[in-house]
Amino acid sequence: MTTSSEILSVVASRELAGKRTVFAGIGLPTLAASLAHLTVAPDLEIVYESGVCGAHPSHLPETIADAVLITGAEAVLSMPALFGYVLQGGHIDVGFLGAAQIDRWGNLNSSVIGDWQSPKVRLPGPGGAMEVMANSREVFVVMRRHDPRSFVDELDFCTSPGPDRALADGVTPFGLGVTKVITELGILARGGPGEELRLVALHPGATVEQARAATGWPLKVADDVTVIAPPSEAELRLLREDVDPERVYLR
Amino acid sequence: MTTSSEILSVVASRELAGKRTVFAGIGLPTLAASLAHLTVAPDLEIVYESGVCGAHPSHLPETIADAVLITGAEAVLSMPALFGYVLQGGHIDVGFLGAAQIDRWGNLNSSVIGDWQSPKVRLPGPGGAMEVMANSREVFVVMRRHDPRSFVDELDFCTSPGPDRALADGVTPFGLGVTKVITELGILARGGPGEELRLVALHPGATVEQARAATGWPLKVADDVTVIAPPSEAELRLLREDVDPERVYLR
Amino acid sequence: MPRPGPDKTMSLRDAVAAFVHDGDTVSLEGFTHLIPTAAGHEIIRQGRRDLTVVRMTADIVVDQMLAGGCVRKLVSSFVGNSSAGSLGELRRRIEHADPEPLDFEEYSHYGMICRYLAGAQRLPFYPLRSYAGSDLPRVNANIRKVASPYGDEQIYVVPPLNPDVTIIHAQRADRAGNTQIWGLTGIQAEAVYAAEKAIVVVEEIVADEVIRSDPNRTVVPAHAVDAVVECPRGAHPSFAQGYYDRDNAFYRSWSGISRDKEKLAAWMAEWVHGTADHAEYVAKLGDEFWAGLAVGEALSEPVNYGRRLQK
Amino acid sequence: MPRPGPDKTMSLRDAVAAFVHDGDTVSLEGFTHLIPTAAGHEIIRQGRRDLTVVRMTADIVVDQMLAGGCVRKLVSSFVGNSSAGSLGELRRRIEHADPEPLDFEEYSHYGMICRYLAGAQRLPFYPLRSYAGSDLPRVNANIRKVASPYGDEQIYVVPPLNPDVTIIHAQRADRAGNTQIWGLTGIQAEAVYAAEKAIVVVEEIVADEVIRSDPNRTVVPAHAVDAVVECPRGAHPSFAQGYYDRDNAFYRSWSGISRDKEKLAAWMAEWVHGTADHAEYVAKLGDEFWAGLAVGEALSEPVNYGRRLQK
User: Fold this and answer.
1) ipTM of the predicted structure?
2) Which residues of chain C are modeled with pLDDT < 50?
């Protein structure tokens, strides 16, 4: 029995083929990047928001700053160097982000549900997500839940804007913004500024109608929606035995 | 027989009474600061342009980056930290500078003799002198030679401007600029912006007329020009036995 | 030549009493690693009021300072209990003005970093490639735009941050304040240089020779430090690389504690107001507890700084 | 989890051939310490032309590259032979256009630092509190002013510097390019991050485990490095902390050598063109010479990075 975490990790890992640097938080992004390192992207380096480059952890890390990421790492950078030179400097190929809400242009909200001044729910806020969005060549979003509360017609608040909003604000963006959104139903994708997210692939058994119903805007659909190949035995074995043998994140 | 280097070092050291941090190059400024540390400014810290703080050198350093300044130091900073946080951040009480030319407002030229585009003599240029001038609370200048070629009516080129020129350029300066100029004849001083350098003290035997003749502008003279007390036996003993026993700079 | 610097060692109680005043802007930094929790608790014990607390990742220690009634305003780029859940008191303050409103100034991480960089470098502003198209500048008037003089490009800027006092936790320092940190060094140096006054809380005060054997390890030089406080395990529940590990169980428990006002009050009464100082807090946790966070050895290989051989 | 990074080791000859092209902007940094002299000599041997050389302290290696006919333009904040005298070729070029003019762009040290900071951070400009009232902005149109959006303050700014290639010298690196420097670290990290390509020349390539025993010592991570070159004593006549001391006698002799065109040509013929590579240059100096620059031992005390004990 393959779990949803396993499927999301495997599908995300395949999208990292040929990439060199990935900015990843803990959880599914780390699993995806670690698996990609063993499969489609042997030279992949994971850069953590805490400043760790080239980690060789003895245990699966519980946070982006876990002590096991530091011991035996190749480099640990200060925050000004990590955010200024590595991230804003343009050294990140793929940034992984999550969010409470995403819209059709790949703009993200992680600040509030409701009005910012008197929110219904106060969320953690930007952290470094705004910088990951503005400065990575492209951004992958992993959203476990695919429903109209998360895939919204209009964000309650735009925390981390994609390149379309940057352009409208008079600033030429560096990267493409969100190019892939990997969900429990399939994959939404876009090429970059000016393009809406479109449904390009479905997990076996999922339908275009399900995806449309789960999305809060009129979802565009590619002419050739492909079916995502289920995780192979080799991928699952690596994920289960080498990447997360304790099943810390493979819930 | 007391040498001119000894006299200048001792006189400069006395001016450091009560100061906490000094930005000093190698040579007379180091001697003056080291002597002050043993006499009038026990808590004085010398910060070197190379990034060394709290040096405890085994030998008298030959450059501001000498290996003996690093081994056993309390801290070594990167250039952005040294120039950005320590110097521009406002942590330096006194900066020591030299120059090829100085004018009555304490503006300095260390770039060229003649025209910048086709100079008669190309000098080393600003280095960090401009930053020392702009960001120290006050600046002491030690000029061995007191003559009209160095003390000029008008600079050939202003490399490191004092606060008067900064104000005229629309920028409010942080420090006082040059407050003391210590020469072979005596001490010129000024309180800060708006004030010209005035002769305030003479070495024993030197005269106001000598100082006027050696200065390329009509030199103002204080009402009460004092006579500088010659180096005491205690000062000379410390300088010769503890600070520079090999007489590297006490030529 | 120079003699050892002045002795700046103080107790945490005296340092907080001397350098943290009602109404001050207090920066507490440490990104997951070396969070100055003991200092936060001492500020609560001394009953400071109306503070503006500045902290990139406002997490448990900020929720505790809010619960302690110390905070009028928060300046931050992330308000959450790491990935382990919510901050109950913070959410009550923001979502329900309960027991009173919280003035909140929100930035991104790099926005905060740039504010410290501007503060440390005495700059009127610092440019960064964030914020274009974000709703944040709409709710934070401090985030502005500047036109580049080298083309028609525009870029957002943030103003300097100059706290009245910055407090950091570190592994070790000498008595004069030369402070060494390894593992994640975060924004600590900039936060200290940006501040009027700085308190460094350390796991241990060491001999001058230890510091001076490795000057590149000194992240904060003595001239930027006003008080040095020895306070072992002062970063709990966060960790100190090479000294003790993170107390992940406590992080996970905090959502449950802070969600319930009475539980939270009871926790504060027992662990903060009910302990005279951090030593009592540490002792109350007990030896067995600390054994569970103990770490093994992974020593750095020494490097040679060299020694002049000639005369 | 991650495997060792890709092997980027090359000979100095191959690295210069691959990454330094005629007409390029080449940054060579190292502030008195770790000056990449061997790389400068190899550029001369390979006959590169029309380079824009960027170096904060343009000293002997720049004078040699000028004498080698490699340089069309110089960007610098200090043009002198340390405190030991003048650069003869540089002065002939600037004072007499002999044998040809030198395009010279002058900054202050912090102006250069800020140009690297802007380049590394992909900023359109970087503000600094220098230049107000100086004559430099009059002769360097790149130094401009910006108005602060937080008041009526004005501040000078400099534009980013993004060299085609940056070359630095360091004590050690692993084969992937994780580079460790101790003693003066200068502007090396920023100069590398600002560049399109980066060559790191090191005293020794070491095992991954050596680097990984002390990740805070890594000043330049592998992802910013394109070539790693092992070249012992490649910083002579400057020094490498803990490896060899500065050759002060050579610095003092340079004014005399470079003042006289024939003497300088003879020196270049013998020591640069007359040696096949830096190994030959080192051998030609001889064992006795190197013994005179040898340094003794002053080891850093190790720190504990810690190791998780639980499962």
Assistant:
1) 0.97
2) 1-2
